[in-house]
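Hello again, I could really use a second opinion on something today. For a while now I've been wondering how a particular protein folds. Please have a think about how the structure follows from the sequence. Here's the protein in full, and shout if anything looks odd to you:

***
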Amino acid sequence: MTIEKLIEDRNLLEKQRFWIRISYEECLKIGIKKNYSIEEFGMFEILCSRYSRGIDFLIRKIFRTLNEYEFENQGTLIDVVNHAHKRGLFENIQTLRLMKDVRNTIVHEYIEEALTEVFQEVLEYTGVLLTIIDNTLCHIEKLENETI
């Protein structure tokens, strides 16, 4: 794995963070309600989608890229998460598992009423996701600086 590939993935992660943050800030303004307007529901649906893609991208792409760059054994997805935890990219493995569970709920939920039930969790965990992304970007930047 080359430093160029690491930089390319960092750039993609920064774009993910940008779009997630925009949706997150909009949905924070809306807040949690019993009923949403069509526009509000649409904004939350976009956040849910970006949250889901962000979790997948971080775990399946970026964490694996870091393992490859730092010569870690790729192993299973659990191994990838454990290596990221050892790097200090997030505090609690259980929280990351819950975040992935919320992602799975979003992806497999097709009924509008049931989807609104995850909006609160998505708001909560999107903040955590953004922190993990920031930590990961700092780690990548450190690796880049060591190479220069």
